[in-house]
Amino acid sequence: MPDNLGTSPDDVQFRFRDDEVVDHAAVTVDAFLDQSNAAAVRIEPGDDARELLPHLERIKLVEVNFPGFMDGRGYSSARVLREAGYEGEIRAVGEVLIDQLAIMRRCGFDAFAPVNTLDEADAERAFNLWNEVYQKTTDGRAPIWQKRHG
Amino acid sequence: MYRYDQYDQEMVDTRVAEFRDQTRRRLEGKITEDQFKPLRLQNGLYLQLHAYMLRVAVPYGTLNGTQMHALADIADKYDRGYGHFTTRQNIQYNWIKLEEAPDLLADLAKVEMHAIQTSGNCIRNISSDQYAGAAADELVDPRPYAELLRQWSSFHPEFLHLPRKFKICVIASDNDRAAMRLHDIGIQIVKNEAGEIGCAFYVGGGMGRTPMVAPLIREFVPLDQLITYSEACLRVYNRYGRRDNKYKARIKILVHEMGKDEYARQVEEEFAHLLEQGIEPPLAELERIKPYFADPAFKIGLTEKADRSDDKFARWVDSNCMPHKAPGYVAVTISLKPVGGIPGDASTAQMHAMADLAKEYSFDECRVTHAQNIVLPHVEIGRLNELYGKLVQADLATANIDQIGDIIACPGLDYCSLANARSIPVAQKISQRFEQNGKGEMLGQLKLKISGCINACGHHHAGHIGILGVDKKGTENYQLLLGGSEAEDTSLAKITGPGFDEAGIVDAVEKAADVYLAQREDGERFLDTYRRIGMDPFKEALYA
Ligand code: HEM
Ligand code: SF4
User: Could you say which of B60, B240, B371, B504 has the lowest number of CB atoms within 10 Å?
Assistant: First the structure.
């Protein structure tokens, strides 16, 4: 399997970060764990994101691949990384669709490289649809229960 | 019962707007049917043999009169004047047009209802004991906990693309009336030795093609960790649940293959981590929810006796009324199983009637049961005669709760694209047979459950008598099963032997019933006799 399988900055359609777009080629989790200089890694649905936790300080970009949008393991992967304090880019790649954008944001994704470019207006609407949320995640939004109880 | 505040209302209104937009994009061809399917499923819309079917959530089975009226209006406006109450305490409509679905959801939102996550690979509507808040045997009312879980599980960003559907049930009594251990997660509210209230977690139950009774994985989760522990259970499932084979994707398979101890260990690990994340609502949130479920203003000094001079009325009281925690009250179950009828169906007129009766006799509350009936939870014993008279007028006075005529049946081949055989006609014939031969009442408690295929929507694994529709070289065939139970003595039914055709299965049920009548000892139910004497005497009678 080639090491160089990542998306390029040009593939990123939406990004919610102010820093420079990370332009390292992402490697597989196995390759990443084998080599000490990689700064970008791609998580496939079957990978365990917890294996990356000892190495967070050298990671600049995590791509989480959605080969099919129905496989939701990537949502857990992103949350696990954010909960461990990872602050670098988490880029959703693969079959990323309009109706996944808002929940991906909630799970910690801050860049999106959909395999098929999305309609800008539809995406804009999707990102801004939910004013309120029921659950607490690491996205910093106050859940409804927090608003109810101050 | 629970009422939405501005936040809850905003969530369902936003959902309606979202679905309207999704439907627009689908109708404009911007998304494919494959992409649209999970979106509509998460709003309760299935495509069936003849039309779209829409399933509306009835959280933990509780409804007020206004909501029941609204369900009736929806049946008139968008369907053909009927609704079908389901085994997960929801209601389904069978003849829905896609273009009209967003308007239907908007009508629901007006009465604080929705169809969110009633299908699809996500956490489904939370079910509970239909007698919650009324039962004399409950520790506390389980519904505040179910409501807390409802809010947590609605739109949970991490768990909307699970390996498979996920069903949670919450009860608070040792008598299980909600098939708790046949859920992906079954929670029983319990008291520990220190006298504190908390939750026992049973994980990995289910029916379908591989039925399993959920094992206990944690005896006690403190109330202020309920959400965190649930999240840990789900995260471990989302990580390891199988995605290569949809028939092995349910959590029951994971817990079984991994072993319950290893699953529990991994949950503990994730739980310890999540406890540091501060994701648990404060106990104040539970305290906010609880008063919504406070007892209504029960009267005191009421009569505890009804006038039993009318024999039909007395029989109805004996089969359809359940003791209540408040003196002078009972919980009344309205049977949606008239002899020869479609189990769980109610007409618009009947739904309006039940809504009015709930208002007049039961503090404006009704409940949907997993056995597809409706409960008026708080009725004065002294007003039972009057209520019964009105039920008779509305064709809702069938006296058969938990008897052989109170059949659970899935839609089967009449509606369902996955079916091998019809379920509804078999249910109709069995109830007619036992009405004609007069054995129905004599048999006492006998729970009969019919599924039209191995997916087990009709709970056949959990029937004292179960019937499973199979395909035998292109003709409809029925297997008979005996000995299942969904109650606190949960067990899975066993197949008797070769299957029967449609007429044959009705005869077979009667033969099995006759074995029981001949062999029963004092106070034994069908299930008890079966457990005592075993399968052989039944086999002899069936296949001799
Ligand atoms: C008519 C359309 C329906 C279809 C296509 C359908 C499909 C299915 C399928 C495929 C399963 C197996 C899922 C699994 O094991 O993962 C299932 C299970 C189930 N369905 Fe349905 N169903 C339908 C209607 C209903 C209705 C009307 C009810 C209620 C009366 C219902 C209640 C259930 C229940 C309780 C289960 C068992 C859940 C478990 O395995 O734990 N279904 N259904
Ligand atoms: S048990 Fe089978 S036939 Fe019956 S509703 Fe479920 S999928 Fe359809």
Answer: B504
Q: Give the ranges where B222-297 is alpha helix by DSSP (H).
A: 226-240, 251-258, 260-275, 283-289
- Whose CA is closest to A143, among B282, B42, B59? B282
Residue B500, domain member (yes or no): yes
Residues B469, B412 contacting (CB under 8 angstroms): yes
pLDDT tens digits, one per residue of B348-359:
999 999 999 999
Q: How far apart are CA A56 and CA B230, in angstroms?
A: 27
Domain limit, last residue, from B77, B110, B143: B110
Q: Which amino acid is at B464?
A: H
Domain count, chain B: 4
A-chain residue closest to B40, CA distance: A99
Alpha-carbon distance of A21 to A10, in angstroms, equals: 9
- Residue closest by Cα to atom 36 of ligand 1: B457
- Is residue B203 included in any domain, yes or no? yes
- Give me the residue label for tokens 């199988």: B242
Asked if residue B230 and residue B156 are part of one domain, the reply reads yes
* Closest CA of chain A from B227, distance in Å: 10
Contact B282 A79 (CB under 8 A): no
* Neighbour tally for B393: CB within 10 Å: 10
For residue A117, the SS3 value is coil
How far apart, in whole angstroms, are the C-alpha atoms of residue B426 and residue B220?
A: 43
Cα angle B54, B55, B58; round to 5: 150
Q: What is the value of ipTM here, to two decimals?
A: 0.96
Q: What is the pLDDT of residue A5?
A: 66
> What is the mean pLDDT of the segment spanning A25-35?
92
Ligand 2 center to B469 CA (angstroms): 9
State how far the Cα of B180 lies from the Cα of A98, in Å rounded to an integer. 36
Look at A138 and B14 and tell me if their CB atoms are within 8 Å. no
Q: Is residue B40 within 8 Å of B100, Cβ to Cβ?
A: no
